From TrEMBL:
Top-level taxon of the source organism: Bacteria
Origin organism lineage: Bacteria, Bacillati, Bacillota, Clostridia, Lachnospirales
Pfam families per the UniProt record, alphabetical: Peripla_BP_3
Recorded GO MF terms: DNA-binding transcription factor activity; transcription cis-regulatory region binding
Identification of the protein by name: LacI family transcriptional regulator
Organism of derivation: Lachnoclostridium phytofermentans
Ranges of residues in domain Transcriptional regulator LacI/GalR-like sensor: 90-251
Length: 254
């Protein structure tokens, strides 16, 4: 509004067909620009038909996405998932941890796979062993997903890592809940860190070390890029937003 534009918000509620309908409707209403957050652009493998639809609209108006869409003619503004993983993993390594697990997330979600890729790179950089059993998927990204992922993993009787990086704060809370129920102390027996830096970090015991995304910078970048594209000022096609680690009580130093 401050720049003379009105914001219209559409929620697809996780429905691909509703997402498609929303984008079609916005295009037919001849809005000045479309910002697509989540949904199909979060998928690891881009849907060709979806890309074709986006490109047909991008010929008429700027489209910005916060994900990945191979072959799409649109602007991208993303959280730098690699840098986010780097700061938390290097923090743990510098505090003496060598056996570090990565828990949660699905293999079909780009942000999760970006984190896993960077995890492997950094472990190799420091000469640490990458144990495949320490890269643990979850079915959901909520507390139950973390609890269930840890429950299934521990049923295999693998050796406990010294630290666990959860895919997000909610997953971390589920992991912590399961570990406590089974007599493990955090951070004495195992350190826990995660991503998102939500309200959950200070609502659990101990308070959770977490990577915080700069959503203010993220939102400002999206809006400024959209306005620049509307005015044909040729903003950068791809931009990454950096994150910060918030250290609390859930990690120990050796």
């Amino acid at each position: 509004i401050a720049n003379g534009y009105m914001l219209m918000v559409c929620n697809s509620l996780g429905s691909n067909s509703l997402e498609h309908d929303h984008i079609d409707k916005l295009a037919s209403q001849k809005v000045d620009a479309i910002i697509q957050i989540g949904g199909k652009v979060d998928e690891l493998v881009s849907d060709e038909q979806y890309v074709e639809m986006i490109n047909s609209i991008a010929n008429k108006m700027p489209i910005l996405i916060t994900g990945k869409l191979d072959g799409a003619d649109c602007y991208q503004v993303n959280i730098d998932e690699g840098q986010a993983m780097e700061i938390v993993l290097e923090y743990l390594i510098q505090n003496g941890h060598q056996e570090i697990a990565l828990v949660g997330g699905r293999a079909d979600v780009k942000s999760t796979m970006d984190k896993r890729f960077r995890y492997r790179q950094i472990m190799r950089k420091y000469g640490l062993t990458i144990r495949e059993e320490y890269i643990i998927s979850g079915k959901t990204y909520d507390i139950e997903g973390g609890y269930d992922a840890m429950k299934e993993w521990m049923s295999n009787d693998f050796p406990m890592p010294s630290a666990i990086i959860a895919i997000n704060d909610f997953t971390a809370v589920g992991i912590m809940r399961f570990l406590k129920e089974h007599g493990l102390s955090i951070p004495k027996d195992v350190s826990i860190a995660s991503f998102d830096n939500t309200y959950m970090t200070e609502g659990c015991e101990p308070n959770l070390t977490s990577v915080g995304y700069d959503y203010k910078a993220f939102g400002e970048c999206l809006i400024k890029t959209a306005i620049a594209a509307i005015h044909k000022e040729e903003p950068p096609r791809t931009q990454l937003i950096k994150s910060k680690l918030y250290v609390r009580e859930s990690c120990r130093k050796f």
